[in-house]
Amino acid sequence: MTATVPRPPRGRPALSTLRDRVLKVAELVTTPLLPADYLDLVDPLRSGAALRGRIEAVQHETRDAATVVIRPGRDWLPHTPGQYVRIGIDVDGIRLWRAYSITSVLGRPDGCFTITVKAIPDGKVSNHLVHRTLPGTVVQLDQATGEFVLPAQRPAKALFVTAGSGITPVMGILRNQVHEAGDVVVVHSAPTAGDVIFGAELRALAAAGSIRLVERHTAAQGLLDGAALAELVPDLAERTTWACGPVGLLETLEQHWAGEGIADRLHTERFRPRVLVTGEGGTVTFGRSGRTVDVDGATPILDAAEDAGLLMPSGCRMGICYGCVLPLREGAVRDLRNGEVTTAAPGDGVLVQTCISAAAGACDIDH
Amino acid sequence: MTVLQKKSDNPIAHLTPEDIEAIGFELDAIRQDVIDSRGAADAAYIRRVIDVQRKLELGSRAVLLFSKFPPAWVLGTMGLSVAKILENMEIGHNILHGQWDWMRDPKIHSTTWEWDMASPAEQWKHSHNELHHTYTNVIGKDNDLGYGIMRVDEDQRWVPMYLLQPVWNFVNACFFEYGIAAYDLELGKNLATPERRNDPEFRARGKAVLKKIGKQMTKDYVVHPLLSGPSFLPTLAANFTANVVRNLWSHSVIMCGHFPEGVETFEKKSIDGETRGEWYLRQMLGSANISGSKAMHVMTGNLSHQVEHHLFPDLPSNRYGEIAPKVKDLFDKYGLRYHTAPLPQQVASAWHKVLRLSLPNGWLAETTPKNAPAQLVKLWKMTTGGPKVRRQLQAA
Question: Would you say residue A8 lies in a domain?
């Protein structure tokens, strides 16, 4: 038996203890704020800060789509091609979070990554990003995440079925890993040839023989269905398939793949949140206490919850003191004072005043 | 002054219940206009104020590192005083009201903000947002009226201890942040009986306040002076001065909000079953504004628009000035008095009231140079005599 127990590396813990001590002292200096609040004034992208990014450029791809170049903060971790990133951007002063696929090549020399955004009708964030965002804007970021990626065991034959901005995660994969995905077929739907995001680049890849590209121009040819796809790609059962696009397309594909008994060979990515049914009243779930209350559309959630025996934070009960604010994790509520509907997608945690908010559909409240 | 309900010339006697509800609808419409137009410019405003405040505080504290040189001391103390005032008034008070919650920025939110003040944000929000803003100027419900230590109304019985109330008021002004912390803790009530003293909830809140005060004191009176090295004492003095300046300023502004002569108070039972229109009306009659320049409005945290703030406590403060003319038109339309005057006048009026109520009812008004000796004798007798003597002399 030998006595060579590996020594713990010395420098780092000592350094981090020193760093902790410096931080403690700095906190005494800045209380009640944190040192970070002052450092953010100087460098919001520094290491140790909440993860943010700065928009460096907005490059137009088609009439309603643009690629946004983002310089991430120093704690940004490299993504896996096909993954998306959640971005929080202030639109009309209100911070809104959306997820966008990363489209850039890994290890860009400038350290930036890109997302490609298509402005959708009434899309607050997408229109803001495509048409109104100026370079220099600081946005909030989460680390990249998502399962829409090539497996470690690369496929011998791959099929990508996309429509509209559904091409974005696939472009992220093609730009980085086109030669690792074996024999690649891309079937992409867009209204016209001019609407194909990355049209020139996809056609160049096809011309170089890296992929087989099938463009479907739906304005003239109509929407793609399972049968048409099977005709276009006769060997689709042999391929591992990744699909990204509108809900209608994904449902069509899921049905077809299930019908063929090969549902496990289809990976899908939804890029729009589920449409919320906002009606009068609904079922309110209080996640932490595990209680569920049925509330009509005219009763404040606070009153209904208290009537059901829940212990709720409360204050003035007239919408002025914010003593009753709780995070709405998912769902929709209506401001009883003006009928305005506030919605939250999973992960948003929009803070709402329960004393003047009624349920406008099913709600999940973090309490 | 006396509660509005007991006045012979009740200023709202001419209003019908329909009028009062109509006032409510018009005010709701003004509120909605602001909410509909709230946006990027407002968000940019509060971020700019925060940015300026932080840089001013950093700059001033940096200058104070050399505070043994008198010009540096003066400059740094002035800058730090202004920074502390901005932090408490335009930033802290308004964020804690939830005025900026609509931005959904967790860094600028009523549930996450902490301020440069002895009282922890959580406790202050309860006593201020819930109690004071809901029960504004209701005697026995709104502790902001005299903070439970002063005589604020003729109807409160006079006792000799009130003679000292101008002194207390001044001491409270100098150390206002601690006064507020004590007030948020309801210290008077909660220390009164052993039962209340030992209540675990009260003890936990007391601990939180002491911890907060400890941190605040360590920062201003230990850490920053130590960082100043040879300027230790001058920096300590500068920080103390800045805190007192901030306290005096915020106390003055807050006194002007509800204390000047002519601002109405209300009796407890008058708010039973109060409608939204009636609540609005109480806010209109129970608040007073300060007129002045834009800089003055910012330094008061726009509490110079106290009337508008009390009507709409959760609207962004930068909008109060804009809606003030509409609110004033509404007062005129319904024949109500819109209380506004420059700062010195409102401060003087509030102090006059403190002084007047420190004396027995009517004493100050009745006293002239001619009858002064006789009045002083009467006051002496009332001060040294028992309740019976006081009642007799008061009645005489």
Answer: no
